[in-house]
Amino acid sequence: MTNEPFDLSELLSVGRARRLIEGDAAGLREWLAGDPTFEPEARMPEDTNESPEETEPVEAYSPPALNAVIGGLPDVAGRVVVGGGASLTAETTDDGIRPGRDEPDDCRIVKYRRFPTSALPEPVREFVSSGAAAVGCDASYLALPLLSGLAAAIGNSRRLRLKRGWSVPAVLWTVIVGESGSAKSPAFRMAIEPFRERQTRALLQHREAQRRYRVEMARYERQLSDWTLSQWLPESETSLPPEKPLPPAPERTVVGDTTVLALAPLLAENPRGLLLARDELAGWVRGFERRAGPETAHWLAMQAGESMLIDRQRGIARSLAIERAAVSVTGGIQPDDLRRAIASGLSARLLVSWPRRRLKRWSEHGIDATAEERIAAMIDRLYALEGDGEAGRQRPRTLELSEDARSAWQGYYNVHA
To answer: 318: closest CA among 306, 308, 327, 309?
Structure first.
């Protein structure tokens, strides 16, 4: 068995690294080797047909609860350095690294797994499967952006109670990773298109509402002028001035600006929440390396659906208070930016997919029109969900876990928390 240099310390420098659903071992080796500070310390065997019993024990470093599933590393063997964790003896198995006897069972790196499209409900499953076949890409390239969009559609209309005192919003940050030419961009655009179409319709409706507003304002100004003159007449009766019409606020669902100051007024006008969708999220990811203090705190509030207070230098309203700031995020990044996300700690808040690169072959297959219609109808139904309370002061309706869901959550939490 021939070994080659490989070091996972760069990738796993943060112990709570998020899940990489799928990956490319060769691409990961090349990615890490391209780092000028890369110093090979470990060894990764080439793919072999050896059974788990024939594989020699290896040493690895890992914290007790390693929240990482590294895809595309079928027989990881070597020294895995994760944030100064204690040394353990582990052996490779058919499902990844199994920890030594002195370490908990949840401390392992799991083998490459395909995205579980079977776990998606209809019509999401149909749309993802049909779209992936049309683009010729991995299903996760459509599933993750679509899941973020669906979370934004639910927005602040719902929260899920995990237990008393702990509830979570419908907010999801997803990132798809791939080199240029890996088909992540066409897949991303296909997944986000239904949401952008809804945004386009909303902006057209707002344009018509603005036209009606200008007519109402002209009528109001005439009525106000007549009322003002009437107050000078001695025989006039005391009356209230005409009511000034309010300007229409545009319904915003999809945004592209990643600055908190730009998002704040949009969140104030759209209490349901927003979807930040960008084909390239590199600037947003790199921003977490530069951000400190309130800027980072605001982003964490937008993921948790918490209150946010923004103080601005300009504008009529110097302070903006958002009761429940909710922003789902999705987009694509290059592998180098994945390293930055891990180094900054951002990866602990992301659902990441880095599928293995596929050989491109032309196909006449296109996405099924029925699948597009069904997913668009589903998105409209989700946006129609209402919370509890009166219009304008609604609060999220709280949902409870079913027994099956609670059992699944407990199993997930005990392994990955």
So the answer is: 309
Residue appearing with tokens 């709570």:
16
Contact 288, 344 (CB under 8 A): yes
Token pair of 145 as six digits = 């952006």
Q: Tell how far CA 100 is from the center of its chain.
A: 35
Residue type for 184, please? K
Structure tokens at 151: 């979370």
Q: Considering Cα of 121, then 125, then 127, then 128, what sign does the dihedral take?
A: positive
Element (DSSP H or E) covering residue 397: strand 397-400
> DSSP 3-state assignment of 279?
strand
Strands (E) in 76-215, as ranges, are 87-93, 96-98, 158-163, 166-169, 173-177
Beta carbons of 125 and 142 less than 8 angstroms apart: no
- Strand 274-280 and strand 327-333: the pairing is parallel
Nearest to 372 by CA among 200, 153, 131, 188: 131
**Residue 282 corresponds to which tokens in the numbers above?**
């590199």
Between the CA of residue 178 and those of 8, 27, 357, what are the distances in Å? 19, 10, 8
Largest CA distance in the chain: 106
Q: Pick from 291, 250, 294: which is nearest to 274 by CA?
A: 250
Triad 65, 69, 74: Cα angle to 5°:
125
Q: What is the pTM of this model?
A: 0.71
* Main-chain dihedrals φ then ψ at residue 142, nearest 5 degrees: -95, -40
Region for 122 from its dihedrals, namely left if φ exceeds 0, alpha if ψ lies in -120 to 50, beta otherwise:
beta
pLDDT per position in the chain (417 positions), as tens?
333 333 344 444 433 333 333 344 444 444 444 444 433 333 333 333 333 333 333 323 233 222 233 333 323 322 222 222 322 233 333 444 334 333 444 444 455 678 899 999 999 999 999 999 999 999 999 999 999 999 999 999 999 999 999 999 999 999 999 988 889 999 999 999 999 999 999 999 989 999 999 999 999 999 999 888 887 777 667 778 889 999 888 889 999 887 888 888 899 889 999 999 999 998 888 877 765 556 788 898 999 999 988 876 565 556 788 899 999 999 999 888 888 888 777 878 899 998 888 888 888 888 889 999 999 999 999 999 999 887 767 899 999 999 999 999 999 899 877
Contact in structure between 65 and 106 (CB atoms under 8 Å)? yes
Phi, psi for 4 (deg, rounded to 5):
-140, 150
